[in-house]
Amino acid sequence: MYMLEFLFISFSCFMSGLYVYVYKYKHFLLMLLSLEMVVLSVYMVMMFYFSFFSYEYFMCMFFLSMAVCESVLGLSLLVLIIWSHGSDMVLIFDMLW
Q1: What's the pLDDT score for residue 93?
Q2: Phi and psi dihedrals of 45, rounded to 5?
Q3: Tens digits of residue pLDDT in 15-45
Q4: What are the structural domains of the chain?
């Protein structure tokens, strides 16, 4: 019963993060937060899978470090866009090209 509840919570976090990423794309910060929610739900499933089958957690730590690098790059891009354009609206990205 615990396993099904955990997988349901992880799946609902994944789907809600994916929904926000696809349908609420006005602000770049909101897109980054929803992407992090998706990544953390995948990380939760990986941790549960590796602990259930008694595997080592090396792959989880590698995945988490890549997720941190992705979020740092996203935040630095957000700071650069806000500094140059004054807003994080995705609709003004056509001015970048």
Answers
A1: 63
A2: -65, -40
A3: 999 999 888 778 888 999 999 999 999 999 9
A4: 2-96 (1.10.287.3510)
For residues 8 and 42, what is the distance between their CA atoms, to the nearest angstrom?
Answer: 12
Q: Is there a contact between 6 and 45 (Cβ–Cβ < 8 Å)?
A: no
Q: How many C-beta atoms surround the C-beta of residue 26 within 10 A?
A: 10
| pTM for the full predicted model | 0.83
- Give how far the C-alpha of residue 90 lies from the chain's centroid of Cα atoms, to the nearest Å: 17
> Which residue type occupies 44?
M
Tokens read off for 90: 């995705």
How far is Cα 80 from Cα 46, in angstroms, rounded to an integer? 33
Query: Percentage of residues in the chain with pLDDT exceeding 70?
Result: 93
